[in-house]
Structure formats: structure tokens, C-alpha cells
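Note on ligand handling. Small-molecule inputs were canonicalized before submission; formal charges were left as drawn, and no protonation-state enumeration was performed. Where a ligand contained multiple stereocentres, the stereochemistry in the source SMILES was retained. For adenosine-5'-triphosphate, this procedure yielded the string shown in the input block below.
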Amino acid sequence: MAPPDNDVLWARDLEHAHRGSPALLGVSLGVRQGEILAVTGPRGSGKTTLLGCLSGQLAPDAGEVWFNGVPLHELGQAARDRLRRERFGWVGESPQLVPELTAWENAALPLLLAGVGGREARKTVAEWLERLDVADCARLRPAALRQAQRQRVAIARALAHKPDVLFADEPTAPLHRADRAQVLRTLTTAGRTHAITVVLASHEPEVATLADRSVTLLDGRAAVGDTAAEGREDEVSCSLSG
Ligand SMILES: Nc1ncnc2c1ncn2[C@@H]1O[C@H](COP(=O)(O)OP(=O)(O)OP(=O)(O)O)[C@@H](O)[C@H]1O
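Structure output:
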């Protein structure tokens, strides 16, 4: 079965087990260009594993993942890595910055690796650091930053090269409650203003209110009644089959 033309990401009957222990059991979903999809569910329900399969970090044991008509599940590791580097952004639970580089150098890495000139990279990154309230940290190395500041730099890095899809897995985990709303708003606004598709995983159900649609995972399956399938009859049967 071919993916629908208007889905930037499309997955069908995804299964994945970690060392024999099943984490995904037949999840199907589609994400449209520029859409913000929340993936919610309790801890251990399979959210990280799903994002890993959708982003090409993990090869599913069964099922299909298509990105813009490209079958990710058929690509080798090197091709998947290239796609991730060039087309996807990733923000995880804890920021993984290069300790030897300053905040701005960390955030500029994907741009510089893509061949963008230093001056343009500097300008773009400065704007993102400003938007994320860490402009004054630009010249500091990660060790001199608080964990919440490091996470904001990691978010700037994930957005600066304007990925097609941003995967954010519990992106507010290292932040204080007061900072969470602002960072989530920055992520979703960035998605909407820059036409970046955002797949946002969180165990906090209220994150779904910021998204266009949501899917809830329970024990590796898409829960019955998820709004990721709302108004999309083609998907309802897939989502509920999991
Ligand atoms: N590397 C791993 N090795 C073994 N089991 C794993 C591994 N990663 C995840 N699991 C297991 O797979 C299941 C799904 O985990 P996953 O991290 O995808 O869920 P999650 O919803 O993202 O949870 P959390 O919010 O705690 O990260 C859980 O039972 C988890 O213990």
C-alpha cells in the first residue's frame, strides 16, 4: 500500500522490540506537512520507540515508515543517518551538546555541516538563541550553563537548519514548570511559522492541547479514540488495528 501524497510522514503497522521485549505492537499513523502531532501516553508506553522508528534512528522489526514518499524502512543505516542529519531535527529529554564548543557553535553545527557560510549561520543561530532566551549564553560552553539553558541551546540547534520534521521527545523534561510553557510555545510557534512538521512526545496529556492532533499510546498500541485519526477515515482503521 502506497502512502497518501499529502502525508510527510506515514507509518503502517509498526512493530519494534527491545532485546525481545515488545515496545510497539502495530502502530499506524500519518502526519501532514506543517502539522503538529502530539504523541502522549504513560511512561513506557512506546513514545520514544515510535519517534525512533519514525525518524530512522531505529529500524522497525515489521511495518513501514515513509518520509515524503521515501521508504525509510528499506534504507540502510548510512542513508537513514544522512536523512536524519539533513531533513530532521531531534530534541531529547536531556541536551546532548559538544562540551568543547560554545553554545552558538553547538547550535550552528547542523548549518555548518550543511555548508552554510559562517556569517549566515551566525545570524540564523543568534535569532534562535534570542527567541529561546539564551542569547546571552552564546559564547559560553555547556559546562557553564544550567541544564535548562543547555536544553534551550539544543532546541535552537534542532530548529536552526529548518528541518522538515522536528522530533521532540519529552523536550521540557529538564526545565522548571515555569519554563515549560514558554519552550513548548516556542517549539509549536516555530513549527507553524516555519512550516516545520513537529512530532511532540510527552507523558503530560495537556501537551495535546498545543497540537493539531494527538495520538495516545498504551502498551505499544495506539489507543482507541485518538484524535490523530480524526476526520481521516483511511487512518482510523489503521490506528485502531494496532
Ligand atoms: N533500550 C532499551 N532496552 C530495553 N528495553 C527498552 C529500551 N528502550 C525502551 N525499552 C522498553 O520499551 C518499552 C517502551 O519504552 P519507550 O521508552 O519507547 O516508552 P516511552 O513511552 O517513551 O517511555 P518514557 O516516557 O519513560 O521514555 C518500555 O517497556 C521500556 O522499558
